Every structure is written in structure tokens, then in C-alpha cells.
Amino acid sequence: MPTLDELMRQGRPVARHRPWPRTVVDAAAWNAAAGRLSDGDWTLLGLWGEAGAVHMALLDGTGGIGVVSLDCADGRYPSIGQRHPPALRLERAARDLFGLQPLGLPDIRPWLDHGGWGLRHPLAARTEATEPAPSYVFLPGEGEGLHQIPVGPVHAGIIEPGHFRFTASGETVVRLEQRLGYVHKGIEGLMAGADLDRAAALAGRTSGDSTVAYALAFARAAEAATGATAPPRAQWLRALMAELERLANHFGDIGAICNDASFTLMHAHCGILRERVLRAADACFGHRLMRDRILPGGVAVDLANSGVAALRALIAECRARFPALTELYDNTASLQDRTVGTGILSAALARQYAAGGYVGRASGRSFDARRTPGYPPYDTLRFDVPSLDAGDVDARVWVRIREAEQSLSLLEQILHQLPEGPLRAEPTPPSEPCEGMALTESFRGDVLVWLRLAADGTVARCHLRDPSWFQWPLLEAAIHGNIVADFPLCNKSFNCSYSGHDL
Amino acid sequence: MRKLLFSGMFRAPVTEPRPPTDDAALRELAQAVDRSARRRLGHSLSIREVDAGSCNGCELEIHALNNAFYDLERFGIRFVASPRHADVLLVTGPVTANMRDALERTFQATPDPKWVVAVGDCAVDGGCFAGSYAVVGGVARVVPVDLHIRGCPPNPNALLQGLLALLDRVGEGGRSA
Ligand code: SF4
């Protein structure tokens, strides 16, 4: 069996793909990679298409990363999903967008295409859709006394839209099936032909709660492609923003999970901490979510002395208040009764699906893109990647509590070591087409951006892979055997992104 | 828990004073709200939020309206779970082709009198997603809009100003003391 290195050497290497290699392989090597994935030796980081080719980003057991590509001029390629289920939805999406047919794909239903675009394969042939889309057939759940509960796309709260089809036996969920794609905006289509600034703005609007992580991933991919490096101060400010974003989301969601267990006191107090973080972000960078503050080549704004003071005050307040909330969570038996043992995700599934973020880390998979592959300035910062094995709602809450503490420490370290210097070194336009890839750690998990720039510096193709692609399917597994009434709690403890997934 | 509750009694509330009503919003609303409707609604508004394609940034700031700083409910404005209980639909996002149907049906399920508030730059004209094969456009392309609150996302203060303007119009001068 080939190692990733050997596999990469077998094919035709693609010039100007950075920082990891890309190789065009034949069907045999493509299938060999599928074998390594299904054996659990390698991890699937992403799978995406373009007209006439399909690509796969792979991670081997030693932290090596590579992209393998298969040319398929006839639009067909051997399905990875038939052997490695985490690829299923990615292949269904690539088929809807590009018309690429995965041979052997066990699930041939459309995924993002709900029949409303007036077009088929909008990113490739763009043929007019002549017939109306057939109605979507949900997977059957058969047995005595089973009933179905359809929920959504519009949910009973301030939540993104998606459809959940529950099959239940009394109160117990026998099957949950998701149908997503409602907020598909065609971001990858809008990217094509865009200049770097517009593309960066679009990337930062893929999933609003992770706008910093996306802007960072896009910037790093663009820098990799063009061979540019952001100045040191910019890299540190980026990490500062990323940790503020993580902190705000963790505070907000820890409270919201407790709220879904009807424990509103935590929600109210965590909401105050979240608001404090957003206000500090606003004071430092002029935007509460820090949107459009990270650009290819650097950052858009500097941190003034007043901002440093605001951050120190924020850290002090969080350090003073958060421990009492942690204790409250830990000591409230009625709350623990709802979260402990609920929505268990097995370690095997977390590993198979390469679940990122707290979903993976609560089930023993301690992957963190800040460590592997790693990017500056995290190589010079001290932090733990907390992980647990229980895999339940409680474990996901605890991982987030511990991560929030780590983020506070990271903020302190960054403020302490922040170098002086310029904020941006604008990437020089390439003279020939070039490609770049980046992996960054959002609060939710690893975000992957793959980018090809044309010779004039505009985007030829950009793929954005949200961590939710590999977490949504796991929610279907985690809810199995739980009661319907615990679904909001489980769902919130995963908190997958609809927009990030639907694109 | 008791300690937390107790200390809460002695700390000053974090809640912000009421922001001034947004003048531009008042002008846009002048035509939208007639007197008879005001009488029927009295002094409160029930809002149903509909994400018709947003990036979820707008939702984050709408959520913030419920936190202790903005405390929307003190104005008699609250979020409800069903369009059938709503006076106002708060719609975010560029309307995607895949959400068009659901938005129309939610609008139809909302009883009269009703108002639609479009939240965020995307909801005005599709924002940076305009022109995509998957996007219909601004909210007004699908349902009639009474008020736009701009921003990407609008911050909670801007949202509050817009909603208070709506409440003022609807409730003839807001809440009676
Ligand atoms: S206006 Fe901005 S925050 Fe709101 S949905 Fe559009 S891109 Fe997202």
C-alpha cells in the first residue's frame, strides 16, 4: 500500500501549488487513496470538483498533506463515498454544481440543487433545467408504530433554515435525516472571476459566526498561491481576532446550550460575556464580528493603545466572572441530568468523519489546525487542545469551557508579545496561474480553502469547505436513540453551520 | 447559584437606555402603518424571524437583542415561534432560490395586519450575493417590505432603533406609562 508521499510521486505533479503538493493521478491511484481512507489510515480533508476534474485533499497519519486530482473529461470518476461515507454529501454537491458523476455512489439524490435555479450544473455546463425537479425521497424508516415528524426549513427560533425528518417510535428517535442546501447562495460561482478583495469579502460571508476564520483561511490561501507572506504584526493581530471570535462563540453557545435545557440563568450570564467580547472587538477593530478586517497580505486595521486597554479589561472581567459560571454548570444537577449521556457521538465515527472542533475533541479526536499543520503565530504560543472521551453534550460543553480558558490565555500572550511593524504587504499579482491552500481553525473546527488564481490575479476557482460538512452527518448518528425533546440540545451542542455548509 | 442570583441583586443592571428612534426608519414607515392597525395592535409587537439565505451574521446580532444589554422585551417586543402568532416578519439574507417558497409560505401564514422588516444589506438587494444563479435578490422581490435596516450585519442598536420606530408607529407613541 502506497504512502501519501509515494502516491503523490506516482502522478504528475502540478506546478505552483503551495504550500502542499498537488498531483494529477490515474484512476488506480485514486482508488488506492479511497482504500487508505476507508481503512482509516488517512483522513479526508475535502473533496471538490471543477469542470472536467475532481480533487481530494488528504491527510496521512504523520501530518502530511497533499491534494490528488483526477481528470475526468467524460464527467465520471470512481466514487470515494461508496467506500468512505464522509465523502457522500461532498460528491452529491459536486454533482449538482458541476455535473460530475461519481460512479458507484450509493445515494444518487441531489443535495444542494432543489430545482429552483432554472439551471443544471451551474458551475460547469450551465444547461437550462427543462423538467421540474422530482420530489425529494427521504430514506424509509419501517417498523410497527413508527411515525414521522417533519421540521423546517423555517424553524421555531432565530436559527438558520434546514429540514429535519425524524422517524420516531413514541418519544425515541429511530432515524434523523437532514436535508440541507436551503441557504445555498452560489458563493463559489460568485468567486469565479472576482478580484482578491471581493473574493476575500465573499469568503468572510460564508458563515457569519466564523468570518475571521474564513477571511484568514482565504488570505492564507491567496498568500500561499502568490508566494506572499503577511508581516509579523499582521499575523499576530489575526490570531488575536481569531481568539476573540472563538471566545465570543464559545460564551454564546455554552449559554445557549444551557438555555435549550431550560437553564436560563447561564444563558443570561454567558450572553453578557459574549456581548463584552463583541464590544471589545468593536473597540479594537471597528466591527463587532471583525468582518473584512483580515485581507490577503495582512490586516485592514491596527490595534491602538485604547484597544489594548479594552482587551485587558475584557480579560480581567472574563477571568473574574467565568469561573463562577463554570462552577454553576458543574454543580447544577438538573442541568447535568439533561447533558450527561445525551447525544453520544462514538470515537470511531468522530475519527472516521474527521470531525473537527469540539465535536471531534469531545469524542477523543484532538485535531486542531492551529497545531497540525499549524500556522504562525501559534507555533510560538503555549496552549492546550483539551479533549475528552465521553462524546456527549456534557463533554462538548466542557471542551468549550476549557477552550475558552485557553483563548483567554492566548489573548494575554498575544498582547504581551505583539510585535511592531507594518500591517500589510499586498500580494503582487502572479504572472502565471497559481494555486494555494490553507487550513485554519475556526471555533467550530478546521476550515479549508483551496484557491486557483488566473494569471491576471483574479480567482479562477475557489473551494471553501466548512467543518460542518463532516459534523452534520454525525448529528444524525448522535441523536439516534435519544428522545425527540432532546434534539434542540444535541443540535445546539454540535452547532453546525447551515450557511457554511450550503455555501 | 444562590451566590450569583444574590450578587445580581446588588449590581446595577447592564441594560442600556433606550436609543433614539431612527428618523430615516420613521420616514420609511410613515406610509406603512395606518391608524386602524395601530388601534388593533395596542402596545406590543410579536416578531417571527425568517432567515431566507443569510450568512448567519445577521442572526447573531438579532440574538443579541435578547441579551441583558438590549433586553428587547422591555419594549413589549418579543420573538415568537410561529408566523401565526406574529405581527412582524424580520427577514434576513439575500433570498435564495431554495428559500423563496418557504418565505412566501411563511408570509401567507402570518395573519393581517402584518409588517415585513428586511434586515441587513443582503436583504435590501442581495448585497454581495446579488447576481448569483442561486439568489433571487432582496426580500422585496418576494414579499412586500415595510422597513429596511441596513448593515452587515446591523448592530443591535441599529436593529433596536428600527424596531422602536416601527413600534412607535404601530402603537401610537409606544408603551403607555
Ligand atoms: S447583511 Fe451581512 S451579516 Fe447579514 S446576511 Fe448579509 S452578509 Fe451576512
Write the layout of secondary structure elements.
The complex is a heterodimer of chains A (503) and B (177).
Chain A (H helix, E strand, L loop, with lengths): L3 H7 L1 E2 L3 E2 L3 E4 L1 H12 L4 E8 L2 E7 L5 E7 L4 E3 L9 H11 L2 E3 L15 E2 L6 E2 L17 E6 L11 E7 L2 E8 L7 H5 L4 H8 L7 H16 L5 H29 L3 H22 L8 E2 L2 E2 L5 H27 L1 H7 L7 H6 L4 H5 L8 H5 L18 H25 L16 E8 L4 E8 L5 E7 L6 H7 L8 H8 L3 H5 L1
Parallel strand pairs in A: 2-16, 3-6, 7-8
Antiparallel strand pairs in A: 1-3, 4-5, 5-6, 9-10, 11-12, 12-13, 14-15, 16-17, 17-18
Chain B lengths: L1 H9 L12 H8 L4 H7 L3 E7 L5 H8 L12 E3 L8 E5 L2 E2 L3 H10 L5 E5 L1 H5 L9 E3 L9 E3 L6 H15 L7
Parallel strand pairs in B: 1-2, 1-3, 3-5, 5-7
Antiparallel strand pairs in B: 4-6
Bound molecules: iron/sulfur cluster.
State the fourth-level CATH superfamily of the largest domain in chain A: Cytochrome-c3 Hydrogenase, chain B
Flag low-confidence runs of chain B.
Answer: 173-177
Number of strands of chain B: 7
Regions with little confidence, pLDDT below 50 for 5+ residues of chain A: none
- Level-1 CATH class name of the largest domain in chain A: Mainly Alpha
Average pLDDT of chain B, rounded to a whole number, is: 85
Total strands of chain A: 18
Task: Give the CATH architecture of the largest domain in chain A.
Answer: Orthogonal Bundle
Q: Order of strands across the widest beta sheet of chain A?
A: 1-3-6-5-4
* CA radius of gyration of chain A: 22 Å
Q: Which series of helices and strands of chain B comes N to C?
A: HHHEHEEEHEHEEH
Q: Whole-Å distance between the termini of chain A? A: 36 Å
Residue fraction in strands of chain B? 15-25%
Please estimate the helix content of chain A: 40-55%
Sum up the overall morphology of chain B in one term.
globular
Task: Profile the largest sheet of chain B.
Answer: 5 strands, parallel
Return the structural class of chain B.
Answer: alpha/beta
Helix count of chain A, per DSSP?
17
Radius of gyration of chain B: 17 Å
Quickly count the helices of chain B: 7
